[in-house]
Write the structure tokens for this entry.
Amino acid sequence: MKKFFLLLTALVFAVACSSQKTEEQVKVDPDLEILFVGTYTKKEGHVDGKGEGVYVYAMNKETGAISYLNVSEEIISPSYIAVHPNGKYVYAVNEFDGGEEAFATVTALKYDPADHSLSWLNEVSSLGQYPCHVSIDNSGKFVMAANYVGGSVALYPILEDGSLDEYSSYKKHEGGSSHPRQEAPHAHQIIQHPRLGFVTAVDLGADKLYEYKLDTVSQTLDFIREYPNGPKMGGPRHIAFHPTLDVSYTLSELIGSIEVTALRDSARYFGNLQVISTLEKGDERDAASGAIKVHPNGKFLYASNRGEINEIVVYAIGEKGELTPVGRQSTFGKTPRDFEIDPSGRFLLAANQDSGTIVTFSINQETGVLEETGYIAEVPTPVCIKFLNP
């Protein structure tokens, strides 16, 4: 009876707020993909957070419509999240200042597929304030987090029960650049290359990319080299890697550009193959670029612009990794800080932070262009979307 009641509750909630196409509500069945949504839960200078924690949703594999299943207990602004490859654990940075004499935190949660619940395991200090990105290394043994305020990154061993040990390695960035938002280092992302193994930290404030080696024996991030971002004052925010080519794509938030770089062993991020704008020619608005993702098939790349623009820009990827614009799609909402492509590559879900919606688009498999599905789910202050099975 308990399981039936939970299922019934989820479906009733879905009818109330999940999709504009009420005749095709998502049902809890094997044809679904499970996804998690990080949210803002408190008011900050850049957002009026209305979420409660990390949400669990289901996506219909045929239509792309999503439906509410559950939400974690209340935790502070779990904005960016990472799902462990074993599907049992979800890790979130708690994006807040931590108070006058403390740091913010990183939280570990355990996922139960029986009722789609997320239970709290533990939290550890982020060693900075407003941590804004979290990822899991290729071995599945470590969590890495980036602190926007403080400009630092930290490494955390994952314990046997999925909880996090205290940090085993910490790196503080230095420097700045000429833009008003570059008065100090602001680490915005840390991620390990899925094939080549090196770790990259992207720092908007320092205007640099930092290369590290993850030593799993000593449990340390070993500094290799730093690379000035080109062009200057770009404000690198996030980086994405091509699935088969040794090419990276760095999204610079402050000027709305994408830097395409060949990943040479001797000079990892020196010399761009291409620098291309996310804005149309003559558009002088602030791009406020947010997220960047490569399609699983390696043929298309997507980037979001926020501010007054609120769109996803679509590019075709050439044989050497070069980009050609092929389309633009409004996200039908405000502030698409993040978006995600589903594991099949058929759908793109755009999280509109300030309008409280996640909009589903279908992806044209021949051109990469986004097409409307009509599905719009109401989600309070959504930020980051991650699928259970990437």
